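Troubleshooting: if your tokenizer reports a length mismatch, compare your output against this known-good record of 181 residues.
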Amino acid sequence: MLKLLREVLKVGEATLPYPFEPLEQMPGFRGKPHHDPELCIACGACAIACPPNALSMAADLDQGLQTWKLFMGRCIYCGRCEEVCPTGAITLSPDFELSVMNKQDLFEQADYKLAACHRCGKYFAPVKEIEYAGALLRQSDLPEVVKTNAGALLNICPECKRKNDVSKMVNLYQENKDVAR
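Known-good structure output:
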């Protein structure tokens, strides 16, 4: 018995006094996601990639708002949201403690303004996402004519773009039909 006691004293403590001292995380540790609303363009890539559906996007077309929500109670810390975010708005922090007194404290939410179509006036995409696409377009190596035409289409909803394309196709068909005669 004395031999065992001597061995135990020689080894020391095997556990960490966790709540009283912070835990040291290893490199690459995946804690809870941190969302930066300033960097976020509300593209929804994170919500699509989230396996447990902890992230969600909802659009209120009457008020022109897109709502981004994170429910930490469902998050499995897989890091898919961080991988797919084009602007780096979501990063996994070293924080892992989720104890709360109220379930509502596990929710994180951010609202983003939607852009209205220049032709029909319907809300169709987040303003920040359109600005981001415009910035990427301006930085591209495309000819200036292409950049200008594509930039003009950024503020038009998909439905109006389709209507515009159909009318162009009908006109092209009519011209080709007249030429064939």
